[in-house]
Automatic annotation (TrEMBL):
This is M48 family metalloprotease. Keywords: Hydrolase, Metal-binding, Metalloprotease, Protease, Zinc. Its EC number is 3.4.24.-. Residues 417-464 form the LysM domain. One of its GO terms (molecular function) is metallopeptidase activity. Pfam families: LysM, Peptidase_M48. Gene3D superfamilies: LysM domain, Metalloproteases ('zincins'), catalytic domain. InterPro entries: LysM, LysM_dom_sf, Mito/Outer_Membr_Metalloprot, Peptidase_M48. Its cofactor is Zn(2+).
Length: 469
């Protein structure tokens, strides 16, 4: 089943669209870790602009702005005006240049077909979606239904404020992307294979978290599941010309790319979050998972959600806590703690408050727990649980601690390491070199797009994830 008739997409980017993109671009860079520079970013930009030319948009090479984002989320998206983005994490999951071109082509297609503009009017009916939330067009990352200001606040830290696109629009972007691949001489099957890698990564993450279908994938569930699009994309590619994949040159280009969290943004290690620059660490409750954003880390589970972030601090913790409650309430309601207590956590001055809030037909408890790390610097958890259940986060609040300089210096990022398979090496032997304590074979297979029974061959290039500065 396809995405319906392909619209005419030859209309050049308008001045209004270009201005809209230019206004949003800095906000998106800030939210997704900033734009990377260097040879890897230049390579992504080159492939993105080359595929944009195939869209038929006038002066496409100069009209498009392509950014490689320093984010550990598997995501790619576009906004009006020709701004196209992919994260380094998603690039690390790819296995050849054709797959990179496929993802870039899908996003270019959203721009060319004006999908954002067609959905923006409906999104604007929900006043809680800001301008950025109204027009982002991710290939995978979507927008959870945001019912109120509180929910929106808790989603921001996990980078989930993007617009839901219709199934027909997503399939249409896949179709157009396959057309662009064919015109550029790439193997058109790359759209299907990159979607398969994403579906496999999604399933692996769900298994590793032990949450089954209760945990949303990192890219959220608002765009059609990659698994449901794989066969459609592969069928569309059948019989089309094009065979270029540039696998080995692609792998050489991404060798050394940071994989997972960047220590400069803090790192999630199992249930622990550690930030070597802010010199702090805490442990999430059992059964919860964390998503690390640029400005906040979110902690999510069936019995509540929380996020850790910072705000301007004037030197008084009680005032700081009240200010955070007021921000959470926004313009919708006056929110203030019913109680406010001072305490100390592992030698750190702290204060916390709690408020009960009507949330439609139910009630929720909102907790702000703040810590003074210096006279001019404080961090705080904002947590939301069903009424009477806020104690689910007590152990996490009490786990906050300072880390030493030596502990901070020992935090080393993971990176992609491209190696050549030697005679006698197997999937199992290579997987043992992966810098993970669990599921090494499964992680290796997903990272390299290998089926469950597929073996490696001597002389083949594969990706490992190792610890390296």
């Amino acid at each position: 089943m396809g995405g319906g008739p392909i619209p005419s997409v030859s209309t050049p980017i308008t001045q209004a669209e270009a201005q809209q993109g230019a206004d949003l671009h800095p906000q998106l860079l800030a939210e997704f870790g900033g734009s990377m520079s260097g040879t890897q970013a230049a390579y992504v930009e080159q492939v993105g602009k080359n595929i944009a030319v195939q869209s038929g948009l006038g002066n496409a090479r100069d009209s498009f702005n392509v950014s490689l984002l320093n984010s550990s989320v598997n995501n790619a998206f576009a906004i009006p005006g020709g701004y196209v983005y992919t994260t380094r994490q998603l690039v690390g999951l790819m296995n050849n240049e054709a797959e990179l071109a496929a993802v870039m082509g899908h996003e270019v297609a959203h721009v060319a077909a004006r999908h954002s503009q067609r959905r923006q009017q409906a999104a604007q009916q929900n006043s809680l979606l800001g301008a950025a939330g109204a027009i982002l067009s991710g290939i995978l990352l979507g927008n959870s239904a945001i019912g109120d200001t509180l929910s929106r606040t808790f989603l921001q830290g996990s980078q989930l404020l993007t617009l839901k696109f219709s199934r027909s629009q997503e399939l249409q972007a896949d179709d157009l992307g396959i057309q662009y691949l064919t015109k550029a001489g790439y193997d058109p099957r790359a759209m299907g294979t990159v979607l398969l890698s994403l579906a496999s990564q999604n399933a692996l993450e769900a298994r590793l978290m032990g949450a089954g279908d209760t945990r949303p994938p990192v890219w959220a569930s608002t765009h059609p599941d990659p698994a449901s699009r794989v066969q459609t994309a592969l069928a569309k590619a059948q019989g089309l010309p094009g065979s270029v994949t540039n696998r080995d040159s692609f792998l050489t280009r991404i060798d050394g790319l940071v994989y997972g969290d960047d220590p400069a943004q803090g790192m999630v290690e199992g249930r622990q979050f550690i930030h070597p620059e802010m010199r702090l660490a805490f442990t999430a409750p059992q059964g919860f998972y964390m998503l690390n954003g640029t400005s906040a880390v979110s902690i999510n589970g069936q019995s509540g959600k929380a996020q850790l972030t910072l705000a301007p601090y004037g030197g008084d913790l009680s005032t700081y806590v009240r200010q955070q409650f007021a921000k959470l309430g926004g313009n919708q309601q006056q929110l203030a703690p019913s109680t406010l207590e001072r305490t100390t956590v592992n030698g750190i001055p702290a204060a916390y408050g709690i408020a009960r809030v009507n949330n439609g037909s139910s009630q929720v408890d909102v907790v702000v727990f703040a810590y003074e790390f210096a006279k001019d610097r404080a961090y705080h958890f904002a947590a939301m649980t069903p009424a009477g259940s806020s104690n689910v986060f007590n152990a996490m609040f009490q786990s906050m601690r300072r880390i030493s300089a030596s502990e901070a210096s020992a935090v080393i990022p993971r990176r992609i390491d491209v190696v050549t398979v030697q005679r006698g090496e197997t999937v199992a032997s290579l997987a043992r070199r992966m810098a993970f304590d669990d599921a090494q074979v499964e992680r290796f297979r997903v990272l390299n797009g290998l089926a469950s029974n597929e073996e490696v061959q001597a002389g083949q290039q594969v990706k490992l994830v190792i610890r390296a500065r």
